[in-house]
Amino acid sequence: MAVDYAVIVVYLAGMLAMGWWGMRRARSKSEFLVAGRRLGPAMYSGTMAAIVLGGASTIGGVGLGYQYGLSGAWMVFTIGLGLLALSVFFSARIARLKVYTVSEMLDLRYGGRAGVISGVVMWAYTLMLAVTSTIAYATIFDVLLDMDRTVAIVLGGTIVVAYSTLGGMWSITLTDMVQFVVKTIGVLLLLLPIAVVKAGGFAEMRAKLPTEYFDPLGIGGETIFTYVLIYTFGMLIGQDIWQRVFTARSDRTAKWGGTVAGTYCLVYALAGAVIGTAAKVLYPDLAAADDAFATIVKDELPVGVRGLVLAAALAAVMSTSSGALIACATVANNDIWARLRGSTRARADDHDEVRGNRVFILLMGIAVIVTAVALNNVVEALTVAYNLLVGGLLVPILGGLLWKRGTVQGALASVVTGSLAVISLMAAYGILADEPVYYGLLTSLAAYVVVSLATRPTDAAVLEVWRERLAGREASETASSPVPAPR
Length: 487
Hints:
Layout: H1 2-25, H2 29-34, H3 41-52, H4 55-68, H5 74-96, H6 102-110, H7 115-135, H8 137-145, H9 149-198, H10 201-208, H11 221-237, H12 239-245, H13 251-282, H14 292-300, H15 305-340, H16 350-374, H17 378-402, H18 408-429, H19 435-454, H20 460-470
Helix pairs in contact: 1-9, 1-15, 3-9, 3-12, 3-13, 3-15, 4-13, 4-15, 5-11, 5-13, 6-7, 6-17, 7-15, 7-16, 7-17, 8-9, 9-13, 9-15, 9-16, 11-17, 12-15, 13-14, 15-16, 17-18, 17-19, 18-19
């Protein structure tokens, strides 16, 4: 496997080199956190697709295909649907707000008092999302080097933390673009056709597998509904996704570039399910469905190609991990730490801003690696992340965008009651149960509507500033700070 090792080493070295190059460009807060809001359509589409298609979409998507057949595409398919919905209906307005975090958007919409609590919930989501991606390094490096799980997590995590800390969003954007190309070649152009041919073609796959493997709804209607609720809606409100929207050069770029990325996700979803179905023909008795990706890569691909496909798997994991990491650090620094010490407005020294955010990426990166080493179950960690995100933040965010009668009191009540309901129901029913997100979301919606109607409407001056920003008529970076609370 010397050739495969060489491919991986070159790929990892390239990631670090791009981190160093990105450090030379990231000289202001805007450059460091949102790549100067300067990405054009091609780079925006590639990096957006890269961040949403991580280890769960690649290794997990193939595993679902192995377990359920073509209907295993639904998890990644709902991610693509969410990205399409975000791009078509919301991304242009989000890009025009010129903020850095979701919590800043809530402060702008509701009057400056919703940020800390929503920031804590968003921080928990981004932290757990980064952890799940970091855990996935163990699977890939085990195939490559038969490496100890802890060493694999530390090695992969350290590389991501290094290039993210050095160059911030510029480094992550450059590495994500490379990762997008590597994933496209490795998974779509190489692994997919090779897996189908090795399995004997579609006719042979149909002959050897039960008919339900080719039923588009075979995974079950309730499961599909849960995927839509968690992943489609989760794509609409996650800090990791919004922070990429903020990098777009224009609202048109955000809309159409995101639409291309969402369509790519739909194709990627089907490819993963087909690869998993082919693996079921070749290896009908694997101990775990998630072993399907690693097994077919290790046993069926030729030397060199195998290294490239494993690099594609690393690319999938690293893109999501780095995006979640910078989102986690941005929320921790700008929405929690700065507010707790009473400094919500941008400081005058851009260099200090970059240095502060760089320190937070390093600290959050260490926390992610330590947490990943301590946890084993990727699915449970990912479920906790999305349950908190959807149950706690979906209603006040979409309510703020769609319903002008929503108030800051309603938003705070929604965040608190929804989050507490999700946590208590996960304790009662189990982390993987459907009830926490179902009832948590209903609780959050009820609290938002009832409390908003029972309290005074949002101050007219606050709403006027909000409308101006949504229309793109307030574009200066200094205006991105939350407006003061109404008297």
